[in-house]
Design goal:
0% strand
């Protein structure tokens, strides 16, 4: 299935978790003394929808406190502001789609072949990674893998079923993107 098809088929837990994972991967390296994981409160809301409103408010406050204007932080802050206050609201799918798109655009912007542009992002979302650089292709793979993991564990006993593997996949992607950003910064300096 293409990334767009997986998003269209995901349940509310899958949508919330995949969206938070997308935003989490795009967070810039935290400043000295800053919260290293401002979206941490939101992960529990992905598992238990009743915690979503409170955890969303905490994540928004943590990211606002960081006041980071670097990289994708302002866009992440805006998307958190746009997140449905109730995980069951109809806007959840559109929000998850916007988070997916932001993550792909951030990865494209750091890729070695950014000239591929929006056409590469669109193609990747539709299942054709032709012309995508390694960062963009890797992000499409991660988003697809996360949605597949969540679909495999939909309805499984234990609220956190599959979440550990999602967190590991997302953390690996965050390390890859931060390393690419660091290499590009050193190359300019």
């Amino acid at each position: 299935m293409s990334l767009l098809e997986l998003i269209a088929a995901a349940d509310e837990r899958g949508l919330a978790t995949s969206a938070v994972a997308c935003l989490d991967r795009c967070l810039p390296q935290p400043a000295e003394g800053a919260d290293p994981d401002p979206l941490r409160p939101l992960w529990a809301g992905c598992v238990d929808g009743s915690l979503w409103p409170v955890r969303l408010a905490k994540a928004r406050a943590a990211l606002d406190a960081a006041a980071d204007a670097e990289g994708a932080a302002p866009q992440i802050r805006k998307l958190l502001g746009d997140a449905p206050a109730d995980r069951a609201e109809p806007g959840l799918r559109e929000w998850a789609d916007a988070c997916s798109l932001l993550a792909l655009e951030v990865h494209l912007g750091q890729d070695t072949t950014p000239s591929a542009g929006a056409g590469a992002v669109r193609g990747c979302r539709e299942g054709d990674a032709e012309g995508a650089g390694p960062l963009l292709a890797g992000e499409v793979w991660r988003q697809t893998r996360i949605l597949e993991l969540l679909a495999e564990n939909a309805g499984a006993t234990g609220a956190g079923a599959g979440l550990r593997r999602v967190l590991d996949t997302s953390a690996e992607g965050q390390r890859v993107l931060r390393a690419a950003v660091s290499r590009r910064a050193r190359g300019r300096g």
